[in-house]
Each structure stands twice: as C-alpha cells, then as structure tokens.
Amino acid sequence: xxxxxxxxxxxxxxxxxEPVVFCHGGPGLWDMMADxxxxxxxxxxxxxxxxxxCGRSPRQGPYSVARTMADLxxxxxxxxxxxxALLGHSWGAQLALRYTLAHPERVxxxxxxxxxxxxxDSTWHAAYQRNLRDALGGRLPRWEALRDRDRTAEExxxxxxxxxxADFADRERALEHAEAMADPWFDVNFECNAALNRERSPGxxxxxxxxxxxxxxxxxxxxxxPRWAVDSxxxxxxxxxxxxxxxxxxxxxxxxxGFHAAVSGFLAST
Length: 270
What we know:
- The chain is an alpha/beta fold.
- It has two domains: about 10-120 and about 190-270, Rossmann fold, CATH 3.40.50.1820; about 125-180, no CATH class.
- The protein is about 40% helix and about 15% strand.
- The protein has twelve helices and seven strands.
- It has a seven-stranded mixed sheet with strand order 1-3-2-4-5-6-7.
- Helix 2 (about 65-80) packs across helix 3 and helix 6 packs across helix 7 (about 175-180).
C-alpha cells in the first residue's frame, strides 16, 4: 500500500470478519506476529504491516510518532475501514494507544500487549536495565562487547538475538525463541529506533482518563520491563481489563493458549 506522501508499506491481510490491525514492536523492527494473526483470523480480518523504514517496508523517513500514526491512518484508508480494533505489542502498544487517544471514533477495541505504560521512561528504565543484565546471565559479556563497538551486519543480528533472549521467562529455551524472532531477518532500523525513542508524550494520563474505548492489557509477569510501570495506565483507563500470564515479553510464545483465549475472548465480546 502507499501512504499519503508516496511511501510504499508492506501489509498482509488474512481472515474474514471484523478488522483487527496489528502494530508491531520496536521501534525499528518488523511484524513478527504471524502466529498471533492465525488464531483470530477465523472470526476476524487481521491486518499486519511493517511500519515506515522497517522490515519489508523501504528505508525511507521521516521517522516520528505523528508520521507513524498518519501511516496507520493510511493503512485503514487503504483497506476501506472506518473503524477497527487495534492490537499493539511493546512499542506498538504505545503506538496503538496514541492512535486510539487521537482517534477514539475509529477504534472499536484496543489490545495493549507488553507495553510500558504512560509514565516517563525515567521511572522504570533503570530497573529494566538491571533486569536485562540479570536475564542475560552468561551471555552478558558478549552482549556488552557487541554493544560497545561498530558491528558488522552479522554481528547486528547476533547482538539482537542475545538481547531478545532476555525477553523470555524460560531461560533454557530463551536463545531458541530469540533465534526464531530473527528468522526471517530484515535488519533493525536503528535510526528509526533512536528518532522515535527520543520523543516524549506528556499529558497522556488526562487523555486516558476520558477514553471510552474498551481496552485489554495483556502482559507477562516475567517481562523484564517492570510491570508496575503499566499500573498507572490501568488505573487511568475507565473501561479496562487486564490479563497477566506466566511469560516474558512475548506472551503468545510462552503461553499461546492463555494469550489467544484472552485476546479472542475480548475481541468477540460485546
């Protein structure tokens, strides 16, 4: 599909029913939620897309939250959808929330998966860094060595796989799960990541307190991003439910049954 400024974005559409648009994590990564899309596709039309500059979409900016929200608007327009449900993971959860706050009339339901809440990053990022290092364990020295030098393309992939291995509760299978995230591999857009992470979003709490769109928060209790960072979002939203699973940052990988039951049940509810 093509955006209003002429950038072509990769999209995939499956299933039949009410539309659900996925927003992948990152920023700077690509859609890794094919397995998630397979579950509700019997009762929903699922749209996945690679955000601007990411994955199978071309490396063209500009990169900003406002521009990414405009691209999401273009995805809806491309498929002719006036109203959709949104499912966002990690950074994509923040994107889906921001879009819902800006356009509540266009969103029927919001599924907020493994996001980091509405407080400033400074309130939780130090705890995240400690948890990351603890979770890496014996892989920490190699991760630090790769982090602190100019990397080859192959080392970029190794660095990311090592970091992603910390995102799983099952330490014995963590590296296996992280390798699966990197297959296929499309290269991380670190420029996009830096640009979007520099942006701040003050005033979200007041907006959340008046949001009437039904919201489901799903997170893993073993996510290395502190789950208490999401508590303020849960308290602020007037129409919200929350499901916490025994999993890490990608709960559909480690508890697929619990994840799909929570999301499918929420999307099917009236």
